[in-house]
Amino acid sequence: MDSVAYRENMLWHKIQNQLKLHDISLIVGPNRSDKTKFLVEQYGDMHFAIDISKATLAYCGGDTTITDAEWQQIVQRDYPFITVDDAHLLKTTDLLKLIEVAVETKKRLYMSCNETIVSDLPALLTHAKKHRLSVVKLDRLTANDVCAWVLAEFG
User: Fold this and answer.
1) Per-residue pLDDT reduced to its tens digit, 133-151
2) Which of 53, 55, 67, 99 is surrounded by the fewest CB atoms within 10 Å?
3) At 79, is the secondary structure helix, strand, or coil?
């Protein structure tokens, strides 16, 4: 593995400890910045399956609403967290319901997204406050720098 690929691989791990400290983690960065790979790595030795990934559907003009079957799978899966890839493609109502499901199932919520998620932040933070949840934004600032921004600590 060359040093550039190694550095890219390790970038998100600089702030990995933040995932365990907060109820909701927004993993924000541009396309092709290894956000999804970072989500998958959180499964460790467990079999992984991203709970919600609507990118292909969205880019083909399809409906990105989370289906009843997908909600049921999220609830039934025996993992300590819920993973959502490309959360910025979801409707605000689904994002808020993800928080509800995370609270009901006592799971953490990990969502990868790009910067367009900011339009949903007021609703997300209000909903997190209602449930006294902490929210962190793990943000890729440059090719070599990531930062953790605590957006809410209500607990």
Assistant:
1) 999 888 887 777 778 888 8
2) 67
3) coil
Give the torsion through C-alpha atoms of 107, 24, 146, 142, to 10 deg.
120
Indicate the pTM of the whole model: 0.84
Residue 77 token pair: 């899966």
Q: What is the pLDDT of residues 78-101, one digit of tens each?
A: 889 899 999 999 999 999 999 999
- CB under 8 Å to 56, separation ≥6 — which residues? none
* Three-state secondary-structure class, residue 75: helix
Q: Return the closest-CA partner of residue 84 out of 104, 106, 64.
A: 64
Is the Cβ–Cβ distance between 29 and 137 less than 8 Å? no
Pick from 53, 38, 107: which is nearest to 77 by CA? 107
Q: Residue type at 40?
A: V
Q: What is the rounded CA–CA span in Å between residue 128 and residue 135? A: 7
Q: Which residue type, as a one-letter code, is found at position 146?
A: V
